Amino acid sequence: MMIERILVIGAGTMGRQIAMSCALSGYETLLQDISEQALTAARTDLEAWAASRVSKGKLEQPDADAALNRLAQSTDLAASASTADLVIEAAVERLDIKEQIFATLGEHAPAHAILATNSSTLPSSRVAAASGRPPQVCNMHFFNPALVMKCVEVVRNEQTSDETVEAVTAVATRLGKQPVLVNKEIPGFIANRMMGAINAEALNLAHAGIASIEDIDTTAKTALGHPMGPFELMDMVGLDVIDFIAQATFAETGNEADKPHPLITEKVQAGLLGRKSGEGFYPYS
Ligand code: 3HC
């Protein structure tokens, strides 16, 4: 099927960069959020990002202008849904809110539209029924920062059709991403499970006083070739997000090892959420 118009729901960190990726790749893109303020903040941020790419010589000014012109915004979900070929939902990680969104999409999106969720904690089977069109629903999981990271996990649920998987995979490829297929829903999919294992070990090493967080990060970078150490990465993702992912995974698996680590709980309770709050494992100016 031909996908030309993409609706991205949620103008937060992930949604705004997913939307910009779509616009840069030539899709008519609509970014929807219930908050006008969030849409304005996203626009300002993306304009600054585009200007910085142009000044670095990595993006031509006409291409930046064309992408920003292809990127519209709206607070009206029903109207936004009515013209979409593909919806990528990147709203807040709450089942009740996502169910409402998918019910609205089911009612207002064109019959052919594919409905994907960027959620890393809620498998698409949880929202598929609300949409009334389960074969057209899957997860399309991007990584932070979404304008940079190549991987997109395409996660099918038991009812997802082959056509849906093919269409979403083709979009990810046109975005310049590397799609990977997750054939069966599993908490954390692939990447967050691996990240969780590394983070758990790093947290245990630090908690036991085996090494400092700086030296653990240095080891990950200089011995394993990771672009960031686990503590730097957790600060970038947000310690509240790391905590939420662990809680959601524990709720699914019941496995004690998946519970949020005490070091994370301590930081979150102290309001130290990482880069976004000015301090996490490291201070940020
Ligand atoms: N937004 C947009 N672009 C960004 C960015 C951001 N927040 N941060 C960095 N960039 C861009 C820079 O502008 C630069 O672009 P350029 O090369 O075209 O000039 C490029 O990324 C490289 O940035 P820097 O040179 O400043 O720094 P690094 O080389 O260290 O790269 C990084 C930064 C891309 C973030 C790199 O450190 C990295 O890959 N880190 C690992 C990120 C990661 O693991 N993400 C997954 C998190 S898990 C997740 O998202 C799942 C979810 O469910 C929680």
UniProtKB/TrEMBL annotation:
Lineage, top ranks: Bacteria, Bacillati, Actinomycetota, Actinomycetes, Micrococcales
Keyword annotations of the record: Oxidoreductase
InterPro entries for this protein: 3-OHacyl-CoA_DH (IPR022694), 3-OHacyl-CoA_DH_NAD-bd (IPR006176), 3HC_DH_C (IPR006108), 6-PGluconate_DH-like_C_sf (IPR008927), 6PGD_dom2 (IPR013328), NAD(P)-bd_dom_sf (IPR036291)
Family of the protein in this entry: Belongs to the 3-hydroxyacyl-CoA dehydrogenase family.
SUPFAM superfamilies given in the database record: 6-phosphogluconate dehydrogenase C-terminal domain-like (SSF48179), NAD(P)-binding Rossmann-fold domains (SSF51735)
Pathway connected to this protein: Lipid metabolism; butanoate metabolism
UniProt-recorded name of the protein: 3-hydroxyacyl-CoA dehydrogenase family protein
Residue runs in coiled coils: none
Protein origin, superkingdom: Bacteria
Domain 3-hydroxyacyl-CoA dehydrogenase C-terminal: 188-284
